[in-house]
């Protein structure tokens, strides 16, 4: 009997752990979301204190004897194990590159509400957040979204970023679109009008059977004001 994966991430937010959850759900993999069980946060903290290959922070995944940290690194592994990445080296590296680009965008989204320090409350850095978000809305979201829209359109329209087969990068782009819709609905409405292929990709991923079942389940944690994507209307100008 194959041991289930063990995902270690905070129990009350989607955060960066959601990118891993989506891949596990799409793959139909057997996994335990450790911290969402009774006493799980204590297990998570203890798992951070291992002597060999310790993760800097959640999320990290235990796969048998392997312990893998960092979202892009976890997805690189899961993509190969579950057919969520191309088989060739150039293809695998390309999808990994796309995931790293998504990671850059996720960091910038987080920094809109915490531009000075993660340890400070949003209210303690609100003027800086307003300035940071103005640039994010005006230039950074459009630049990232135009890039992904181009990949979905050139040289001709395609179902997914690499062609007709879904990869973990598509699942992650779905999550980013969902998160930006939640945090910056005004900005995303305009961008999706300019780039309808983004909404098409989002809808295509959401309709995949395993993903649709997950989104409708209690396993999908709602967006909230503790995660990466937070809704502050004053920042969505």
TrEMBL record:
Entry-linked InterPro entries: Glutathione-S-Trfase_C-like, Glutathione-S-Trfase_C_sf, Glutathione_S-Trfase, Glutathione_S-Trfase_N, GST_C, GST_superfamily, Thioredoxin-like_sf
GO biological process, one term: glutathione metabolic process
A Pfam family: GST_C_3
Domain GST N-terminal: 4-86
Domain GST C-terminal: start-end pairs: 88-223
GO molecular function, a single term: glutathione transferase activity
Alphabetized PROSITE patterns for the sequence: GST_CTER, GST_NTER
PANTHER family per the UniProt record, alphabetical: GLUTATHIONE S-TRANSFERASE
UniProt-recorded name of the protein: Glutathione S-transferase
